[in-house]
Amino acid sequence: MYGRGRGFNHPHPHPPMVAANGDGDILRGATHQDGTKTHSSLDDDNNNIKPHSHDPFDICPPPTRQNAPAVVLKPPLLVTNRERRKQGAATHPQVVTLRPGMIHLKKYISVSDQVSIVKKCRELGKGPGGFYQPGYGDADADADGEGAKLHLKMMCLGKNWDPLSSRYTDRRPSDGAKPPEIPPEFLGIVSEAMALANKLPPITPDICIVNFYSRNGRLGLHQDKDESEESLRQGLPVVSFSVGDSADFLYGDTRDVDKAKKLVLESGDVLIFGGNSRNAFHGVSAIHPMTAPATLLQQTNLLRPGRLNLTFRQY
Ligand SMILES: O=C(O)CCC(=O)C(=O)O
Ligand SMILES: [Fe+2]
Q1: In sequence order, what E strands does 253-301 have?
Q2: Is residue 194's pLDDT more than 60?
Q3: Predicted TM-score of the model (pTM)
């Protein structure tokens, strides 16, 4: 059933995606080591699913001549100091209420925590249930037989969210992989951030959807509405971390891009939307390549232009 949850106003929210520059090409064809290739199972409705392997995707690939960083690996002292000041800013976060129920914590996550998040997502992303290129299946097939692709790589933690059925499942239907657990250190940051949005009910996240957007990454306007009726009824918030390149984030009451407001989400920002904003439409219209903090790039080898977004939810 298309169009539910992170569904879009059109089955092809954007032209079908051919993997954008740098998306997965480096490791394509590499030996798949996670054992999911041979996994065969039934989905939650006992339908036979056709498992196939996904090529591991590395968000921090080793440098090659082609992807040699445009960033200076040893940033001038001034830049480093500026980054240090930014790290310090996390202890005095700027809390902005964008609309009732939608709260923006600017530069909330320290650069050292951002580094840990990138490293952890890199490690999990290369393993079983890691990053893959989600599609919308055969019903939306392009001329080459590939389903319409979302313009991002995705990995689910805790529970699997399936774009094809707009449902949460225990395993990823395409390869039978079980989603990795949500790292406890991520949950710690979520609960601390929640304390600054104290008008909203707190969540105990059991789902985290991790998106990796490269240079051309984007995500059409949608609502997050596949969590349980109870969770949605209570307006339990979605807590979103942005790490890496900045992004143009759109939000509004309808799916109309022209009526949406735009916010630039930067590395370290946390966005919380619950209560009256739980059903807000939102999406990402553009990534600003090479805007990630120099220290983050330096310490993670996050060489791709790219942005990680983690959304924590309670089913
Ligand atoms: O990347 C973002 O900021 C938003 C991600 C999102 O809306 C989602 O994963 O449902
Ligand atoms: Fe969303």
Answers
A1: 261-265, 270-273, 281-288
A2: yes
A3: 0.78
